[in-house]
Amino acid sequence: MAKKFLEISQVGIEFPTPNGVFCALRGVDFAINEGEFVSIIGHSGCGKSTVLNIVAGLYQATEGGVILDGKEVDEPGPDRAVVFQSHALMPWLSVYENVALGVEQVFKGRKNRAQMKSWIEHNLELVKMDHAMHKMPHEISGGMKQRVGIARCLAMQPKVMLMDEPFGALDALTRANLQDSVMEIQKELNTTVILITHDVDEAVLMSDKIVMMSNGPAARVGEILTIELPRPRERLALAKSDQFNFYRQQVLSFLYEKKGVVDFDEAKKQRAVPDQTKDTVEKIS
């Protein structure tokens, strides 16, 4: 049975502003099983990245908290690796050296130099970048840079990989290829992933669950949609799938019908939900 090892429990956060306190999140509450791929989706300003930053330990929740594998998250740590929209590579270091930077910090005293070298090369091979390990960041494309960023995170062997719109700046073909690569790697390694995205098709294609956020301020979880599509997932086949389009419609309906609704219990009554969604849509109250 899957282990629920990441719990976001009644999380709220406030930020001071010149005009007073701004409440970004309130009562955000959900759990993630080990090995799950979970997307968080919502309109701009709904606090998606804020949730991710709290899980990463970059922000401290004002109320509630995060428990990872039985331990409270209160600071950044190598058990939570972040892939940003910007690749964030060190421009003066080679592809190999960028990955080595994290490996040397995490495995110091645990791996010798030869073991570290083998491990770095293995992770570059996973993302299909072993052929370019000695190139500098300015010598490779944007998609290749993101692959290096993913390799750097994987090489740290995190318990959770946090991805903040990592494909957002890429062209459509590169984006699709990288999505497929991430799904293959996630299946192989059984890594737990949280993906922040604006893209409905991306969320349905890649996820086991989609966490849908209400609009801010005081944003919260509106619904959680479980995606029961078989893996591996072929995008061309799914484009013709009634089940894929059903899930896609559920997310779109939430985003565009309920985007400004605060009382989700009342909104649920107002929108008729087909019988088949009863076991699919988990209501968060």
Automatic annotation (TrEMBL):
Keywords: ATP-binding, Cell membrane, Membrane, Nucleotide-binding, Transport. It is found in: Cell membrane. This is Nitrate ABC transporter ATP-binding protein. One of its GO terms (molecular function) is ATP hydrolysis activity. The keyword Nucleotide-binding applies. It comes from Arenicella chitinivorans. InterPro entries: AAA+_ATPase, ABC_transporter-like_ATP-bd, ABC_transporter-like_CS, ABC_transporter_ATP-bind, NO3_transporter_ATP-bd-like, P-loop_NTPase. Belongs to the ABC transporter superfamily. Residues 6-240 form the ABC transporter domain. It is a peripheral membrane protein. The keyword Ion transport does not apply. GO terms for cellular component: plasma membrane. SUPFAM superfamilies: P-loop containing nucleoside triphosphate hydrolases (SSF52540). SMART domains: AAA.
